[in-house]
Every structure is written in C-alpha cells, then in structure tokens.
Write a structure and sequence with these properties.
The chain has five helices and nine strands. By secondary structure, the protein is α/β, with parallel strands linked by helices. Helix 3 crosses helix 4.
Length: 217
C-alpha cells in the first residue's frame, strides 16, 4: 500500500488494483480501491499469463485515458517531471534501467535502450494488445533464470520496451531518478525495490523503512 499512497501524495490518480490472488489475501486497506480480478481476463491473449506477464492482463482498463502500470514494490518520494510530461501529452512513458533484460525480444529493442517495466504509461488509444497478439503468439517463453526464476519470463519486459519505444513520442524516466534498489538502497526521487515480493528478507527495503519511519519501543 505504500506504493499507491506515495503516488497519491503527488498525483490526482484513480488507483486500480489488479490481482490474481483471492481477494481475502489482499490487505484490508487495499480493498477501498477498485479491484480487478485478472483471472477474468486470462483469455484476452492467445498466450496464457505467467509470472510477471500477468501485469498485462488486462492490457487496458480505459483506452480513452492515460494509464500508468506500476509495480507494488515502487515508491515515490518526490514528483517526477517525466510523469508530468506523460500525463500532459501524447507520448508513452518508460522507466530507465542500467541493464537490458528482454528475453526473446532483445533484438527488437534499439541498442543502448535499457528499460525496466516496473513503471510504464500508455496514452489514450494506444494498444498493447496488438503487440502481444502479433509478437508473443501462443505462449510467453520461460527464460528467467537464477534469482529471477519466479518471474518466469523476461519477454514481458522486452515486449513493453519494444512496443512503447515504437510510439512516435516517448519519455524515459532516468535510472538516476527512480533508482534500482534490488541489492542496495540507492537514493533517488523514487525507489524500486525489485525482488521485494519474492524475498523473505529484502535488506534495501528494511533500510528504507528504518530511515523513513519512526520506531516506537
């Protein structure tokens, strides 16, 4: 819930929580928002949802509006100028990264473009579905390895990067603005605690909580 609350501090948004677990497993304070059961949209593509690709089911909630897709392990500390540009214009929004992890879609993403799909935005009338239908086919490739095995696939990240960078106008949030805090706490205007949902102990997130929240003994 800290992720949603942080966005609501800076932006006039209408949060929607897309979930693929039973509603009773969600935090009670999450149920005050609109909930979308992703299982009801599992058939929107030929390819069945797996791992992190679940975030694209459904691909849009309201095609007539600007929409932001945000992982629940990403927290904003300050307003982000690129998000303001996206909401005010006709462009896609992407999050910069320090490395490339795109699965079988690496060849489709321009050289030098390092993108993380933990946050991205699509303008009105943009269709992610067209890209999934045309390029993914019948299944997502299971190509996540080592500590990322639970992600199942990196195809989703590659597909998002390819699709959004193909739009005539795109804005990229620098990796120095919203930082990758998978292994270390890196100060920025936003913090992306990659791996928080799959680790029992996430040291950078523990350090963040200790430094930003008072403890009462």
């Amino acid at each position: 819930m800290r992720s949603i609350d942080s966005f609501m501090r800076f932006y006039d948004v209408e949060p929607v929580i897309c979930h693929n677990c039973p509603v009773e497993n969600l935090p009670e304070n999450a149920r005050r928002f609109r909930l979308v059961n992703q299982h009801e949209h599992a058939g929107c593509f030929e390819a069945a949802p797996v791992g992190v690709a679940w975030k694209l089911y459904p691909p849009r909630l309201d095609p007539l509006r600007h929409e932001l897709f945000i992982d629940n392990d990403l927290i904003l500390l300050r307003r982000i100028k690129e998000i303001d540009q996206f909401l005010a214009g006709d462009c896609t929004l992407l999050l910069g990264e320090t490395s490339r992890t795109y699965g079988r879609f690496d060849k489709f993403v321009p050289p030098g473009r390092c993108i993380n799909s933990g946050l991205f935005g699509v303008p009105p009338d943009f269709s992610i579905k067209n890209y999934v239908d045309l390029y993914v086919g019948s299944s997502w490739e299971h190509n996540a390895r080592a500590e990322h095995t639970k992600n199942v696939t990196f195809d989703e990240q590659g597909l998002v990067a390819f699709a959004l960078l193909s739009y005539p106008r795109s804005v990229i949030i620098p990796a120095t603005s919203i930082t990758n805090c998978e292994h270390h706490l890196v100060e920025g205007d936003g913090l992306h605690f990659i791996g928080l949902n799959r680790r029992v102990f996430h040291r950078p997130y523990r350090l963040y909580k200790c430094s930003h929240y008072k403890l009462f003994l």
